[in-house]
Amino acid sequence: MKEILSRLNIQEHNSGSSTGNEWLESSGEVIDSFSPVDGKLIASVQSTDRAAYQQIVLKAQEAFAVWRQVPAPRRGEIVRQIGEALREKKEDLGKLVSYEMGKSLQEGYGEVQEMIDICDFAVGLSRQLYGLTMHSERPGHRMYEQWHPLGIVGIISAFNFPVAVWSWNSMLAWICGNVCIWKPSEKTPLCGIACQQIVAEVFKKNDIPEGVCSLIQGGRDVGEWMSKDTNVPLISATGSTRMGKAIASAVAARLGKSILELGGNNAIIISQHADLDMSLIGCVFGAVGTAGQRCTSTRRLIIHESVYDSFKEKLVKAYAQLRIGNPLDEHNHVGPLIDKDAVKLYLYSIDQCKQQGGRFAVEGGVLNGDAYESGCYVKPCIAEVTNDMQIVQHETFAPILYLMKYNTISDAIAQQNNVPQGLSSAIMTVNMREAEEFLSHAGSDCGIANVNIGTSGAEIGGAFGGEKETGGGRESGSDAWKAYMRRQTNTINWSTKLPLAQGIKFDF
Ligand code: UN1
């Protein structure tokens, strides 16, 4: 890991505040980053203090005046170079993600691949920031709309996708002509430093001034400065519903814009018409991948009563084969949880589930011993429950999978929708009627609804986000870019008269 850290230019002690290539002094608290893989201290980062934050905002404002004048396709060309730089660093960055966050190496690489993919997507988009044209109701007039950049985009990201979610936001924000200030999770500060250096170097090579890509580090207070700051017109935040509500109200109080991507409580419906063997892969990966710490992780399986027992048996067998351990070892399927607090929450949820009447088909527990010295490794478990239990209504960021039964497809859809969150959902079926019902306006109420694949692992090309307590924001593909711009409607009169709209007469 030492060589990787040095190739990624991470020191033992790092400044956490940067305007690009310049790193600022700060008297903020020191964040020690411990790996959940082996419990060892990786390196430390100085969080941003108020003075450094203000300096960064000032620089960002200056940079915006320059960056918005760079033609969008040229901005896209710079993002293309960022994609190239990420391709070169894929292995090192993927390993750092895996070591600092604890996800499997395959998933660490997959996350960097998502970054590369969004760069490619943004390059194409930089030539497609289309507005509409309209026919004016007045003679000799033309109407159209254009999309302009907003200014500073504040990005607050979570530990579970420490690099990809930032890249979805920043690559789009940049091609749209914005400048970005990023606050990574205080649980994965080094991933932030590594990305900052990769990106800043590319901007420098292209003679783009400091301030287009800035980094701040710290906890809730630092995020709050940005949420309350009228100099930051858009905050894009990923994390828990509790955090999202705090950010949403701070941003709304100043009538700013926000994009929120919060908790999920994602279910897969297993129909009696499902290909059960194929479904198993999607369910198990969805539930235990990233140790159940994706916002798209599969938390609930709603299984038709006629296949409930046989599918449960398949799941129990599959769980017995899972290898839990060091995520950098490619043979392991499941790595650790992010920290000991997460382990406590996992244990608390298991306890609550039992108290509320849940029966465990696969028991959970914390793993001890040499290979698990960080104390963050837990057993993925499966509980038989009913959807109305309080714990089932709640998102626990851990590998706990809840099983429940259904009888009719409308009952299955009702159970699927009957939670406060609305991010991702899926149905496993080869029956076209029920698949279409699930996708219809009377079907799943989630932002993502899939057929015959699981709830997690969305591609970057689609808009990503969800409804209800998930926050309503959309990031990544499709037309999510529009949230990073302001729309301006323009009416141009090329006639010699000035007729008023709506036929109003105004002569003098
Ligand atoms: C998240 O967990 O915050 O769809 C993002 C997925 C990934 C992104 C998850 N592409 O599972």
Oligomer: single chain
* Ligands bound, unique: 2-aminohexanedioic acid
Shape field: globular
What's the number of structural domains?
2
Overall pLDDT level: 97
Biggest beta-sheet profile: 7 strands, mixed
The CATH superfamily of the largest domain appears as Aldehyde Dehydrogenase, Chain A, domain 1
Could you give the count of β-strands? Answer: 22
Distance between the termini: 80 Å
* Poorly predicted regions: none
Radius of gyration over C-alpha positions, nearest whole angstrom: 24 Å
What class would the helix/strand composition place it in?
Answer: alpha/beta
Strand order of the largest sheet: 13-14-15-12-11-17-18
CATH topology of the largest domain: Aldehyde Dehydrogenase, Chain A, domain 1
Fraction of residues in β-strands: 15-25%
CATH class of the largest domain: Alpha Beta
CATH architecture of the largest domain: 3-Layer(aba) Sandwich
Helix content: 25-40%
Q: Which key phrases capture this entry?
A:
binds 2-aminohexanedioic acid, alpha/beta, 7-stranded mixed sheet, 36% helix, Aldehyde Dehydrogenase, Chain A, domain 2, 13 helices
Produce the secondary structure layout.
Layout (H helix, E strand, L loop, with lengths): L1 H6 L5 E3 L14 E5 L6 E6 L3 H18 L4 H30 L3 H21 L7 E2 L6 E9 L2 E5 L7 H12 L3 E5 L5 H17 L7 E3 L4 H9 L5 E5 L2 H13 L3 E5 L4 E5 L5 H13 L9 E7 L3 H13 L19 H16 L3 E4 L18 E4 L15 E7 L2 H9 L3 E2 L1 E5 L3 H8 L8 E4 L11 E2 L2 E2 L6 E2 L8 E9 L15
Parallel strand pairs: 1-3, 6-7, 6-9, 7-8, 9-10, 11-12, 11-17, 12-15, 14-15, 17-18
Antiparallel strand pairs: 2-3, 4-5, 5-22, 13-14, 16-20, 19-21
